[in-house]
Amino acid sequence: MTNANKKASLLQKVSKGLTVSSVITGSTFLHGPPVLALGFTKFFKKSKKVDETNIQLANSWIGINNQLIEHVLPNLNWDITIDEKLDLNLQGRYLMICNHQSWVDTTVNQYFGLKRMPLTRFFTKWELIFIPFVGQAFKILGFPMMKRHTKAQIAKNPELKHRDMLEARKACEQLLSQPFTLLNYLEGTRFTPEKHAQQQSPYQNLLKPKAGGLALALNILGDKIDSLVDMTIVYPNGAPGYGDFWLGGVSDIAVDLRKIDIPDWVLGGNYEDDPVYRERFQKWVDQIWTEKDQLITRMKSRYNQ
């Protein structure tokens, strides 16, 4: 590449970066204050209309991001496969599990889900409530926020364990007043080769799944959801950073969604206190993860031929 071409490429990236950052920042300042202002009215009076308006504002913010993807990244190729057994709609109630490789995963989820599924929420730590704007927005938009106690704290005061469960139940039940998608990254952290080696993970493409969060959500919501959805995201050229994505460094993204059938025995079990049920549940999740690992290998192979 000549010096002139290098300069042109650099200018193009700078221009694209300024465009993306300006639009996302402007959109956030446009949508954020109304969400917060409407949300604070809930302290005085609960209103379904306020909740619906805030969701519309959140979806509008996502929609602008999606427009950026389509116009600023026109050469990005999406390969999306949806299980024919999945009947996705904006009025549904879904639990979703997904592999986790990059901050881009959430953007992929939002891009896919905007016109297909209700607004995606995920469990967050209660401490995030103290982050200006972000924490309050999570709370107002109905993200389940939990006060989790350490094992040492629970050992000193066993009652805290039951308090955690009660907080989780309340947080999940609050979602039932409206359509929702509740996302759980079962690996608990982003995949890296270093973490994979450290864990000695039995899966080629995944870290070990943490089954407790899914067990909790199914215990509370399992008989009230329309589907348990497994989303698999593959970046054929390697997991990108957030900046790489918005600067056009990603050429292909493959997404697969399948429906996971929930056995009858899963519902109503006590994951925390029943070791027999816990072992059986973990084996069930391991089987889901084994199938997912094999699926990722097949998805990657399509780009290596």
Quick overview of this protein structure:
This protein has 305 residues and is of the alpha/beta class. The protein is built from 10 helices and 8 strands.
Question: If you had to describe this structure to a student in words, what would you say it looks like?
Answer:
By secondary structure, this protein is an alpha/beta fold. The protein has two domains: 1-72; 76-118 and 179-301, no CATH class. Helices cover 49% and strands 14% of the residues. It contains ten helices and eight strands. The protein has helices at 3-40, 48-72, 104-113, 134-140, 151-156, 159-173, 193-199, 212-221, 242-246, 275-301, and strands spanning 77-82, 93-98, 120-122, 124-125, 145-146, 180-185, 227-234, 252-260. The strands form two sheets. The protein has a six-stranded mixed sheet, sandwiched between helices. Helix 4 links the parallel strand 4 (124-125) and strand 5. Helix 1 runs antiparallel to helix 2 (48-72) and helix 6 crosses helix 8 (212-221). The two termini are 28 Å apart.
